[in-house]
Amino acid sequence: MHPDPLLLDASIIKSPLGGDLTGPSPVHRSRLGCKRSLLTDAKGMPLAIDLAGANRHDSKLVNATFAASILPIKQHLIVCDKGYRGGSVARTVEHFGATISVPDSTPDVPGQKLRWRIERTFAWMNEWRALATRYERRSDNYLGMLHLWAFLVTLGRLE
Predict the structure, then answer these.
(1) Residue ranges per domain, the chain?
(2) Contact 115, 102 (CB under 8 A)
(3) For residue range 74-104, what is the model confidence (pLDDT) as tens digits?
(4) In 3-state terms, what secondary structure has residue 75?
(5) Quick one: pLDDT band at residue 107, thresholds 50, 70, 90?
(6) Which positions ≥6 away from 25 have C-beta within 8 Å?
(7) Which residues fall within 8 angstroms of residue 63, CB to CB, at 6 or more apart?
(8) In the 8-state DSSP scheme, what is residue 59?
(9) Rounded mean pLDDT of 40-67?
(10) What is the DSSP letter of 21?
(11) Phi, psi values for residue 54, rounded to 5°
């Protein structure tokens, strides 16, 4: 039996000033954007955050996101959406000692009922005006704000 599953997803935000780790966004008419890759626990608490250009596919961010995790990934079930299907993602997840679950729309697949929790975490992230749109040209400044947000959210939600 696996410990509590971990949730993995990515979201695209606008980055009007450009800078490093930006790229043409497929959802914002090719304007510059940034992709945030997020790993959370089953409750939606952030464990790892990574950045890339908006034109990078979600599956290409798995290795860097797992490497940034504050928890060991070993023996966990990683629940992802359909963007993470494929052999390269499964090999990366197995390299870290975990198993992957990419649920379909059927509710009886393990982890399908947990998907809303990572989406809620992205909504918490977008409540901060400075995080909803990336105005920093340097990615390390924006990543620092994301880590500060993750620390404060985790501190406030652990009651």
Answers:
(1) 6-153
(2) no
(3) 989 999 988 898 888 999 999 999 999 887 7
(4) coil
(5) low
(6) 12, 14, 31, 32, 33, 54, 55
(7) 92
(8) G
(9) 93
(10) T
(11) -65, -20
